[in-house]
Design brief:
Residues 1-22 are annotated as: Disordered. By secondary structure, the protein is mainly beta. The protein is built from 2 helices and 25 strands. The chain has helices at residues 66-69, 283-296; strands spanning 11-13, 22-25, 28-31, 39-44, 55-65, 73-79, 82-90, 93-97, 102-105, 109-114, 119-125, 134-143, 154-159, 163-165, 168-174, 176-178, 184-186, 196-202, 207-211, 217-229, 232-234, 239-242, 248-265, 272-275, 278-280.
């Protein structure tokens, strides 16, 4: 997914000390362009909390009737120095990119694209006879650490195995997670910093305790239902951040049950500049990436971002940079 804001803010992320205890982050609504745009609920980056581990971007969308809205229609656009994490609860999205991948992303399947030095891709809802009519899921970005920002772009796929637990089902799509019965569920997909990503479905009234890595900070995004996380109530679409130090978390569902996403990773420890769809370490990194994309616009197979066949042939131009030097914000 791309950031389609016409005047995106510059974000300098990471490097901050996590606050003590737990903090609830309320979402802001962002339309994905056009009069019939699908609106997403964005919780990262937000004022006061720009990252959770290496996670630097979190959009939550749906349930969206793609027959009414057109769903997700995002033409070719670029990325640098990050990984895109696509996880669906329902629906189907076609992913194309300049590595040559043409994939259908379905619920329970992780699609992880590593941009590295540069990649371009598109994401379009699958519609038509026999296709799912409801799109619903999350899109995340993770920042690549120094030393890995220029890796060659590539795509990883993983079918996460749903694991039955007392009162629900857990699907781990990144990293590993300890269950109350001593089992450890893990994903084989490579990440460049330690990460956790898991979907948890809880039955009405269920109470589930999970094991955590105490060196991680964590986030819980509630999709639907009623939920308390270690005694803190969470409303749908809100994101709860907790600082490192916890070795377990207890999830308590209300009368409707709950569907949530659990994220985690050690505090990133580096500053990144994030503007539009680019991650860099400096103003110059972002300016160079924008200039190269504008010169290529997804039509140069030998360029930094490459090219691929996209129906219609259009691509997304980058917004105009602000008339000041991109610099840290406090």
């Amino acid at each position: 997914m791309t950031n389609l804001e016409a005047a995106p803010d510059e974000r300098v992320c990471g490097g901050q000390e996590p606050p003590a205890g737990a903090t609830v982050i309320e979402p802001r609504l962002v339309p994905l362009g056009g009069p019939r745009a699908m609106t997403v609920r964005r919780t990262l980056p937000s004022r006061g909390r720009t990252m959770i581990g290496a996670y630097c971007f979190l959009d939550h969308y749906g349930p969206d009737d793609v027959s009414e809205t057109g769903g997700m229609v995002v033409p070719p656009h670029p990325h640098t120095a990050l990984q895109t994490v696509t996880w669906l609860f329902s629906g189907e999205v076609e992913h194309r990119d300049s590595t040559g991948a043409v994939l259908r992303v379905r619920p329970g399947q992780l699609n992880l694209m590593t941009a590295g030095h540069g990649v371009c891709h598109s994401e379009v809802s699958v519609t038509g006879p026999g296709a799912p009519t409801t799109l619903h899921g999350v899109q995340l970005w993770t920042a690549l650490p120094s030393g890995s920002t220029d890796v060659a772009p590539h795509v990883d796929r993983h079918d996460a195995e749903p694991m039955a637990v007392d009162g629900g089902v857990v699907s781990v799509f990144l990293g590993e997670l300890g269950l109350a019965d001593g089992r450890v569920v893990s994903s084989p997909v490579r990440t460049y910093t330690p990460l956790l990503g898991a979907e948890v479905r809880l039955e009405p009234g269920a109470v589930l305790t999970l094991g955590l890595d105490p060196s991680f900070e964590h986030g819980v995004l509630l999709d639907r239902g009623e939920l308390e996380v270690d005694g803190t109530a969470l409303a749908p679409s809100a994101l709860l951040h907790t600082a490192p130090g916890r070795s377990t978390t207890t999830l308590r569902a209300g009368a409707e049950g709950a569907l949530l996403v659990l994220l985690g990773g050690p505090p990133f420890g580096e500053q990144i500049v994030m503007w539009w769809n680019f991650v860099g370490r400096s103003h110059e990194d972002v300016v160079a990436a924008r200039e190269q994309w504008q010169a290529e616009l997804g039509h140069d197979p030998h360029g930094r971002f490459g090219s691929f066949d996209y129906p219609g042939g259009e691509s997304l131009p980058a917004p105009v940079l602000p008339h000041v030097r991109l610099r840290p914000r406090t």
